[in-house]
Specification:
The protein has about 270 residues and is α/β, with parallel strands linked by helices. The protein contains ten helices and eight strands. It is globular and about 45 Å long. The termini are close together. The structure holds L-Erythrulose and manganese (II) ion.
Length: about 270
């Protein structure tokens, strides 16, 4: 019922928690041959990729894409919704709208709002930063209501904005648009949530996508997170989306692809 998925990157990305970075065609083939049902694509700039070629590869290997990861535009170009500079905010909004255009073109239902929201810079007013983030999100949400934006709570070492499911739920409720949902990531939850299972049940109606990575961000099964319990909770809330491994390429890219699919099997996915 839930799709086994892995996050990979289109060429040229540097984000470290991606299992596969090189040779896009090879990666897609490996992912399909290992038995994954879906693949999440991390893209820095949709203008820098060959969308038709990517589309036809995905079609050839019958791999749907549940969401586009967008954090590289923050990591590599410093674009963010929270930035005090309106020019940077404008570019960040434009970039997410470009990702939404790509999503529509390739039939991808979601675009992730992770690191692209930015953070509160030292000395800056957190309320003002939140207002800026919300304004930018609304602009993107209204740009194309047919594409869902998924806000991902990220741990405190990556941002100071929306670290846990409770704060993400609050802003989703405040904005109140049907195309704003949540992406939960076990790596971040393990750091921030007082009770991972309780939190999943608490935001059951908001969850639109799920990232699995173990406590050390290696493949699930390589650390100390209790994934059996998490899968049970996801079944209990009738989650029917993708479970996407977003992990470090450890011990190697090939090995973590194999370890993940093997562990997904043990979880009965
Ligand atoms: C992106 O999905 C994520 O989980 C962030 O940690 C990016 O650094
Ligand atoms: Mn994630």
């Amino acid at each position: 019922m839930m799709q086994k998925c892995i996050a990979i990157s289109t060429p040229g990305a540097r984000f470290s928690a991606l299992a596969v970075k090189e040779n896009f065609r090879d990666s897609i083939r490996k992912v399909a041959e290992l038995g994954y049902d879906a693949v999440e694509l991390h893209i820095r700039d949709p203008h820098g990729i060959d969308a038709d070629e990517i589309g036809s590869l995905l079609h050839q290997y019958r791999l749907p894409v549940p969401t586009i990861g967008t954090g590289q535009a923050y990591g590599e170009e410093g674009l963010s919704f929270a930035d005090p500079d309106p020019v940077i905010r404008r570019k960040a909004v434009q970039r997410i709208q470009d990702q939404m255009d790509l999503a529509s073109r390739l039939g991808i239902p979601r675009v992730t709002i992770g690191l692209i929201r930015g953070t509160v810079k030292p000395g800056a007013d957190p309320n003002q930063a939140e207002e800026r983030v919300q304004e930018c999100m609304v602009e993107c949400l209204d740009y194309n209501p047919a594409v869902t934006l998924i806000l991902e709570p990220l741990n405190r070492y990556e941002t100071s904005l929306y670290n846990d499911t409770a704060s993400a739920k609050e802003v989703i409720d405040r904005i109140g648009k049907p195309n704003l949902k949540m992406l939960i990531d076990t790596f971040h939850m393990n750091i921030e949530e007082p009770d991972i299972i309780g939190s999943i049940l608490g935001v059951r109606d908001y969850i639109s996508h799920v990232h699995f990575a173990d406590s050390n961000r290696w493949a699930p099964g390589c650390g100390h997170i209790d994934f059996k319990k998490i899968v049970r909770a996801l079944r209990r809330i009738k989650y029917r989306g993708a479970i996407c491994a977003e992990i470090l390429p450890k011990p190697t890219s090939d090995e973590c692809l194999r370890l993940t699919i093997e562990y997904f099997g043990k979880l009965g996915l």
